[in-house]
Design a protein that fits this description.
The chain has 234 residues and is an alpha/beta fold. It contains seven helices and eleven strands. Strands 3-4-2-5-6-1-7-8-9-10-11 form an eleven-stranded mixed beta sheet, sandwiched between helices. Helix 5 links the parallel strand 5 and strand 6. Helix 4 packs parallel to helix 5. The radius of gyration is 17 Å and the shape is globular. The structure holds adenosine-5'-triphosphate and magnesium ion. The site of adenosine-5'-triphosphate (ATP) has 13 residues, from helix 1 and strand 9.
Length: 234
């Protein structure tokens, strides 16, 4: 029997410089069809094709029916809506990795609306891997929080923010990372998949470690191209 393809949404949360984009970059390095909404231009620095206007973005996407890595360096809500429509169609043409960075700048905390809502609610049948970042859990819309296949939770600064996310996912607040480069991974219906996670940096390489569910041992973790840590049951 053929199974229906099912997309994945990973939501990466944490304060600035907490290590949200680092695992995302490790994933996209392993993939050949990627579209980023890139307000800080960091994917351009990784070699993505830089688009600064909607016309440039549209042309780059229409020219790229197979492999290609494209970044839309933009900031406004209107540009984000346009990016979402493009992402929906480009992924429908051929499955892709879609990376909307800094959601709080361009979405609101209510119900996901319009093009963004369509992307997270209706694109999953076309099997995208959506990797989204936001600095505070309270700033993200309910749609992406509820549809997320997993939450990657990095450093939270204030007690309020840590308590907010702890109560959202039903874990003790002491498990929410409060230090830079620390993280946990959680999935609805499963609970904590990785705890006491951390990133180490050697030269320009990043290494991940953490404790997998059902274990008490810190082990190295490898990020795979499907967005998941190898050997962790999602
Ligand atoms: N263990 C580590 N030690 C030192 N530097 C690290 C470590 N882990 C990651 N970094 C570096 O820290 C920087 C910030 O990480 P990253 O970009 O993942 O954070 P972020 O949460 O996405 O931040 P931003 O809010 O700027 O998007 C990166 O340059 C990354 O290479
Ligand atoms: Mg980042």
């Amino acid at each position: 029997m053929e199974t229906r393809p099912d997309g994945t949404i990973g939501l990466y949360m944490g304060i600035t410089r907490s290590g949200k984009s680092t695992p995302i970059k490790e994933i996209v390095k392993q993939r050949d069809r990627v579209l980023a909404f890139d307000p800080k231009g960091e994917y351009v620095q990784m070699g993505f094709v830089k688009c600064e206007t909607r016309a440039e973005l549209l042309k780059a996407l229409m020219d790229t029916t197979g492999a290609g890595k494209i970044a839309f360096v933009a900031n406004s809500r209107k540009d984000f809506e346009f990016w979402c429509d493009c992402a929906f169609n480009w992924n429908r043409q051929k499955e892709a990795v879609l990376v909307p960075e800094e959601l709080a700048n361009v979405t609101n905390s209510g119900k996901a609306q319009d093009s963004w809502g369509r992307l997270i609610n209706q694109s999953l049948a076309f099997n995208p891997l959506i990797l989204a970042t936001v600095q505070r859990g309270s700033e993200v819309d309910k749609g992406v929080m509820n549809n997320a296949s997993y939450l990657h939770i990095a450093q939270h600064q204030t007690n309020d923010d840590a308590e907010y996310i702890a109560s959202k996912i039903g874990v003790d607040v002491s498990l929410i990372p409060r230090e830079q480069y620390k993280f946990i991974v959680w999935r609805g219906g499963k609970g904590l998949l990785v705890r006491s996670g951390s990133i180490q940096k050697k030269g320009d390489k990043h290494f991940f470690r953490g404790i997998k569910a059902g274990s008490n041992r810190v082990v190295p973790l490898t990020v795979e191209k499907n967005g998941k840590f190898k050997g962790v049951e999602y």
